Amino acid sequence: MTLNPLANPKGVSLLCELCQKPAFIQCTKCRVTYYCGVEHQKADWMGIHEKICQMLIPLRMPEPFLSSDDERQHRHQQMTHRKKRMIELTRTTGQKLLFEGHHEQAVPAAMQSLRFSIDVYGLSSIELVPSYLILGEASIGLGRLQQAEEYLAQAEWTVLKTPECSSAIKSKLYRNLGLLFAAKGNYDEARHQLANDIYYASEEFGPHDIHTAGGYFHMANVFFRMNRMDVADSLYTEVTNIWHQHLSQLIRWRLKTPATPSGIGPAVEGAQEEEGGLDEAQEAEAIQVLNSIHDMREQLAHQNPLGLANICHTLTMLYYLLNDMDKAREFSRKALLSSETAPPGEDGSLTTISELAKVLDVHPETATTTS
Which residues form a coiled coil (predicted)? Predict the structure, then answer.
């Protein structure tokens, strides 16, 4: 990131990328992005600009003179395609940053996705809702609840006036409303909104899909705060089982396939489409959700060995797929230890845990000596 102070020609108004106030600094890498000051330039760079800097150049350069209608139509189609790619990239990045807990950094990504969505689809389109929801969730994470209400109200109004709105978008809306009411301490309303989230996610993806698991997880967190540990535990178990099944399928595919590129994100797009792999945001969600459940289970006064073994095995698979072999072996050892301490007749998962442990070259004797 570099600075380039501007001396704006008279009559030329350049606006800050983040706040739309008069800009006095230019990005020297793309030269098509401007800021009111160093603080906003740094915030945008860390949030999204570093990833899209060069991609913005063809989108913001003056249009060339084209003499024929065919040329103009081709250019329009090309630019629309690029803008749609930018919408997908900025939304995925914003959602990933939210799962990682970087709420402030998620805002620039969400603002970019909103701008491109408005440019492509117009001000009243349902396509704007995912961007409003990222902005709403970021505001909740930052404790700006009134601002979150405004974003979510805009999203809700757009959903209500769009009869053809998909269940997937409705699910995300109700999830964010659930998070908002939970942040306010209104747990009854939070549970109502999260129940709607689970209903619509189940309608779109099925009740045992990773897209639905997020609703169960946030519902469990609400019951946890209400000290209803029996209900929270059953919901955390459901979340773990959903991710366990999904990652097991990816593991089976990985072990049957010779030498694949590292990672399960955009770098292996062909495999992702065929096998239902994870994008960057889903990877971040899995890391955040599954580690939270693991930490909770480890801290329980009365531990459930099978529950701990299951979450450790699920994390083993996740980190194996992410090529983080140190963490995969760490959780594999924990899974072996926990499953071996389960009561007789209740260690049904030991076989599958041992199979992956063999792939990672983790042996029972190694697990026994490692805490």
Answer: none
